[in-house]
Amino acid sequence: ARLVRWADVALVSLKPADLPRYRLAYEDFRALNPAIVYLEHVPLGKKGPLGGSPGYDVVVQGMSGTAVLTTGRPAAKYSSVLVGEMFSVCSLSANGISATSTPARIDGSSS
């Protein structure tokens, strides 16, 4: 709780159902720090047949067949080509957070 009170940004990456159990839902953060920028990574989304399921890059690759397409091997193998995709997601998240946080840094507002 002390960390949340002074933090500008929070990034969580857990199953949506687990967030309230660990008091990591947006509402928990907002109650302690109304100006916090909250980013939640939900690899398989919150809705749909797999909504809320745990999802990691290797799981998504296996489910989609992407590893086979990019490696050309029928055996399950993690595709190193998609390592860049993981970094891209992190980079886009960081850029989004930076863009969102800038007004607060300049004038003290929260957008």
What descriptive keywords fit this protein?
6 helices; two-stranded parallel sheet; 111 residues; mainly alpha; single chain
Summarize the structure.
With 111 residues, the chain is mainly alpha-helical. The protein has helices at 2-6, 18-21, 26-32, 57-64, 66-71, 83-107, and strands spanning 9-12, 37-40.
What would you note in describing this structure?
This protein has 111 residues and is mainly α. It is built from 6 helices and 2 strands. It has a two-stranded parallel ribbon with strand order 1-2. It is globular and about 50 Å long. The mean pLDDT is 76.
| Count of runs of 4 or more consecutive helical residues | 6
Task: State the low-pLDDT regions, or none.
Answer: none
Distance between the termini: 22 Å
**Overall average residue pLDDT:** 76
Portion in strands = 5-15%
Secondary-structure element order, as H and E? HEHHEHHH
How many E-type strands? Answer: 2
Strands of the widest sheet, in order across it, are 1-2
Subunit arrangement of the protein: single chain
Helix content: 40-55%
Main sheet makeup: 2 strands, parallel
**Measured on Cα atoms, how large is the radius of gyration?**
17 Å
| Morphology call | globular
SS class? mainly alpha
